[in-house]
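Slide 14.
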Amino acid sequence: CFLTGVKGFQFKGRSQFELRVYVDDGSLISEVLIDHR
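Slide 15: predicted structure.
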């Protein structure tokens, strides 16, 4: 699993953020959304 590029980063306070990244795991590139609360 390789991080190919960050689409957007939005910081919502000290402990809450959203990170949209593109993940390349060989032949498939998918967009994942990490929501940490």
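Speaker note: Residues 2-36 form one domain.
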